[in-house]
Amino acid sequence: MRGGTIAVVGGSIAGCAVATAAARAGAGEVVVLERTRGRLQDRGVGLCIHNERAAELGASGALPGGIAAHPLERRRWVVRDDAHGPGGRVIWEQPFPFHSYHWGLLWQGLRESVPDSVVYRQGEAVTEVEETGAAGVGVRLAGGSVERYDLVVGADGYRSVVRTALCPESRPQYAGYVCWRGNFDAALLAGLGGAADSVPEAGTTVCFPGGSCVIYRIPGPDGPRVNWVLYGSPPRDGQLRLDDPTSFPPGGLTPALAGHLAALLDREFPPYWARALALTAPADTFVQPIYDMETTRTAAGRLLLAGDAASVVRPHNTSGAAKALQDATALADGWRRCGSFEELLRGYEETRGAAGRELVALARRLGRAQVERTPAWAGMDGGEMEAWWRGQLGGAPGIGGRAMTP
């Protein structure tokens, strides 16, 4: 197809990728509507992309070259065992062919790659979208004005306004546990001594009853940083509102929540890793309930969903960024191949809808095994760990997402 007008609701990773893909594929006018007014590149959360997905996305143009990334090769699973020293005991080491990224730096690279023909508007909150038949889709902004487009892409995350219009019955569901996140300057590790983190290309998963914590290095604006993601039960004193995926953003921890985290680290973690995570500044620490969601459809009429708007996947699968970029790639491929919007959206639903549902199912299995129903980690050896891991995969080739369907 050639021409046509597209509104991309949301201008973060998925939104930038979709806008770039559509413009390069031949869309006549592409407008990005991003509600945030501030600097998106200041977000410092770490994420990973599987090496095979990165190669695939680089070849398609969805992942620009030159974005800072840290290579990871293996993942060590450790348990607290005072007889083995402050770093704990390694119970298994597995291949981990990923590159890690700083969210802000990845977004900045994607934003800089958006073609000049795309109109990127910040501070534009979309409150409603409504299909109007032959007139396309009406997009209502917070100021009350309505703009009309031939196609509207929802790249607006967990609380997608576009998803509400497309499939209002699909809503994120609380998984029963929370995720603590943080990151800190890797240079601070030098003050801890020991050799527990002496291999930068290895990530570490600390295992404990009722949870686990993934720790790995990422590039940062001012040098390498250590990123960590800790999954566990929520505090039982009602401090968290479990209806909001971002209840306590960076810098928003209450003293009681900070105390809960400190007690968990002291009780369950090998001493070295407890001290390491304690290096995180309050401004770089936050907690969120874990949600997931399958949508009944990802495209219909003149509405299409991408990234977290299309499917909310628990982070265990390490697939979020790759999936968003694959969604953008699929949209571009369909735009070049199809002769109508109906054909475009039908093909997108067939491929990306199934991919999202598969990711949600796998991440649920991972969450059950690594948080909700943790095994007796300390008594397991490498062979038992490998068998346990295969059971979680349930036939999937691994985590990080699959190659795209041609």
Write the layout of secondary structure elements.
Elements: E1 5-9, H1 13-25, E2 29-34, E3 46-50, H2 51-60, E4 70-79, E5 89-102, H3 103-113, E6 119-122, E7 126-131, E8 137-141, E9 146-149, E10 151-154, H4 161-166, E11 173-185, E12 202-208, E13 211-218, E14 225-232, H5 255-268, H6 271-277, E15 285-294, E16 299-300, E17 303-305, E18 311-312, H7 320-337, H8 341-372, H9 382-393
Parallel strand pairs: 1-2, 1-10, 2-6, 4-12, 10-17
Antiparallel strand pairs: 3-5, 4-5, 7-8, 8-9, 11-14, 11-15, 12-13, 13-14, 15-18, 16-17
Helix pairs in contact: 1-3, 1-7, 2-7, 5-6, 7-8
Number of domains: 2
CATH topology of the largest domain: FAD/NAD(P)-binding domain
Structural class assignment: alpha/beta
Mean pLDDT value: 93
Largest pleated sheet = 9 strands, mixed
Structure notes:
The protein has 406 residues and is of the alpha/beta class. The chain has two domains: 5-42 and 111-172 and 293-372, FAD/NAD(P)-binding domain; 70-104 and 174-291, D-Amino Acid Oxidase, Chain A, domain 2 (2-Layer Sandwich). It has helices at residues 13-25, 51-60, 103-113, 161-166, 255-268, 271-277, 320-337, 341-372, 382-393; strands at 5-9, 29-34, 46-50, 70-79, 89-102, 119-122, 126-131, 137-141, 146-149, 151-154, 173-185, 202-208, 211-218, 225-232, 285-294, 299-300, 303-305, 311-312. The protein has a nine-stranded mixed β-sheet. Strand 1 (5-9), helix 1 and strand 2 form a beta-alpha-beta unit. The protein is globular and about 70 Å long. The mean pLDDT is 93. It holds the Pfam family FAD_binding_3. Residues 292-360 form the FAD-binding domain. This is 2-polyprenyl-6-methoxyphenol hydroxylase.
